[in-house]
Prior knowledge:
- The complex is a heterotrimer of chains A (269), B (322) and C (280).
- Chain B contains 14 helices and 10 strands.
- Chain B has helices at residues 48-55, 77-86, 103-113, 118-131, 136-139, 148-160, 178-195, 206-212, 230-233, 237-242, 249-259, 271-282, 291-295, 308-321; strands at 5-14, 22-32, 37-41, 63-68, 71-72, 87-90, 166-170, 198-202, 215-220, 223-228.
- Chain C is globular.
- Chain C has 12 helices and 10 strands.
Amino acid sequence: xxxxxxxxxxxxxxxxxxxxxxxxxxxxxxxxxxxxxxxxxxxxxxxxxxxxxxxxxxxxxxxxxxxxxxxxxxxxxxxxxxxxxxxxxxxxxxxxxxxxxxxxxxxxxxxxxxxxxxxxxxxxxxxxxxxxxxxxxxxxxxxxxxxxxxxxxxxxxxxxxxxxxxxxxxxxxxxxxxxxxxxxxxxxxxxxxxxxxxxxxxxxxxxxxxxxxxxxxxxxxxxxxxxxxxxxxxxxxxxxxxxxxxxxxxxxxxxxxxxxxxxxxxxxx
Amino acid sequence: xxxxxxxxxxxxxxxxxxxxxxxxxxxxxxxxxxxxxxxxxxxxxxxxxxxxxxxxxxxxxxxxxxxxxxxxxxxxxxxxxxxxxxxxxxxxxxxxxxxxxxxxxxxxxxxxxxxxxxxxxxxxxxxxxxxxxxxxxxxxxxxxxxxxxxxxxxxxxxxxxxxxxxxxxxxxxxxxxxxxxxxxxxxxxxxxxxxxxxxxxxxxxxxxxxxxxxxxxxxxxxxxxxxxxxxxxxxxxxxxxxxxxxxxxxxxxxxxxxxxxxxxxxxxxxxxxxxxxxxxxxxxxxxxxxxxxxxxxxxxxxxxxxxxxxxxxxxxxxxxxx
Amino acid sequence: xxxxxxxxxxxxxxxxxxxxxxxxxxxxxxxxxxxxxxxxxxxxxxxxxxxxxxxxxxxxxxxxxxxxxxxxxxxxxxxxxxxxxxxxxxxxxxxxxxxxxxxxxxxxxxxxxxxxxxxxxxxxxxxxxxxxxxxxxxxxxxxxxxxxxxxxxxxxxxxxxxxxxxxxxxxxxxxxxxxxxxxxxxxxxxxxxxxxxxxxxxxxxxxxxxxxxxxxxxxxxxxxxxxxxxxxxxxxxxxxxxxxxxxxxxxxxxxxxxxxxxxxxxxxxxxxxxxxxxxx
Lengths: 269, 322, 280
């Protein structure tokens, strides 16, 4: 697999309702959604949560396949968590016992819900990054964290750093691919050998990569200065963040769902 | 003569089976002969980069074969690795791949990976540095202290030090000023002559390939629409223009002259040819013979020998070797 | 029209290393007229990029002075005024695009200047149309070709509505198609919008298209005039490591043989015409 095939919170441009929501709304909703996921406890509450997720995905018009593909890299974590839960959940209904491992019915249920929870959690956050351009996302974060400026947290600078990092990830991945090919053409071997040999083989890759990253940073800083960048002070934005009626509605819906799931979950439903 | 490197029905498809599927090369038959100086032209995305990365086994064909000295380079992993050393590839902007503390160490990276002994490595590093015009006192410097042009020489030396039989250079003069271009092209020519190596020069500049190569291969949309000696290829001016390439400036001028009714051979592509042809016309010679006809009687395709110059040079080098 | 950029005995050197002070600019006196298209030609290390960086106060002179629209670039309080008057485009398009979406990137400069959002929208659309990239406004920059990226970078500068654009080897990393597109864009900006253009390059054919050509060598201006006049000084250019277009070269060689041909026939047509008259 080529490095450039990795999707890392890629943005899918679109014009759906979900795309058009204010990024702050989406950020708050994702937080509420995550809280609700942790309050859910049994089929009914999970079903509600699944309904919310499925509804959001349908409205966003992001192909469900791309969301499933995004889940692939975390498969290992999911399996690992599932195993941990199966073997380490104490319970009364013992189903099987192998050596020091005990599998209980409670453990199985717990693992089942844990897997669903993780997958839904990841899908939900993916949906956020799929439907929100990284710039809007950082804008949203900057705006939501705005009050922290009063306690001297450099919110604007952090947001700027984040969006530049996002901008340069694909460029640097491409560059890594190129340097790897070039060093392989000179007989470098990145695939075989033991751990130390492999780490050593990375040196011809990392040195030029770092040097190039610094060069890029330097040139970018000059280019930004040329375009009159002078920090966050007095800066306006092309897109003004403004809550619309749909934002209030969405926020209300999510808040209500979270409270509802919390109550239902409390009763073990 | 047998080609030194050859592709047979080479096809390469990127991201096969995904919505991003893209056929970069489509059943390409390409060949290069020992001692030949070959030019590959094509715009960005034409498939030329994919092609050259197959020649030294950096990319594996989706289908088809790559043969080096008549052996399929993917038939045996040892052969695959050997091919990387025998077919040297200098990437675009190679100066951004330098990594060692000293120029000497950087140039020796390839030879070391080949498993040569210290003495041989030393000989090769010095020979390669000499070829690209680096002085001895440069060798102990950090490559990052050098100027852009010098860094590029170091990077090229790093590939030359493997003493490849085929040397492929992807846009070796990109971003250099005229002086830099001249000296790099001169270095390549010297390596070509001294080692009787096959040179494959990939370039956007028609003027540059026109005065360097024996034969030109045009790549467009993953296929080779035409190939042959420069004078022949430049006759496809309109097609080249459509491929985003064009022809050398003097070729354009001579075509214009012909269109103005002057009885002159328009297959001119270097300054010397242009000058010679004008001077001959001024001496009122009755009819000008085509340069193309003088240079090559038949157009070399993959199955026939390369342009005469290359053959002669190869033959004379063989004699010397005896 | 007035002068937009003026340098007076401009000198620049980097801090001394091991007792040697590398002099990059050695007394440059220039006046760039507003609305003109000026090319600066020279080999690598001749000081042309350093000169460019003085034109919008990225670098400040070690000696002499630079005035942008009458303002001394050393005046720190006027820094933003200087930078919005003279915009700058660099060689590597990848390293000057800030944002993840084309139009967001073009909006970067007006945002920094505190322009109201509605006007930013207008400026962005206008700038993208000027470089013929409006249809790509919602694309991710890293998926564009080199020439397209460079045009986005130019749009990013135009959105500032500068009166002058300095381009530092903008086509050096592009393929022929990209080069053509970028050059066409630059020329259109100059002709149609009256933007002053300073094009730093080492491509003869690009320099030939300017109104005025300045040749630099070793930190000094060695030739300055209309491209035709400058290129006919074949020998002087060779001395400073530059070549001339093939057309001029051919005519020059014929002249050396004793034939009376004009040296200032730069374009294909002019050269063909000159040869036609010679052969007739």
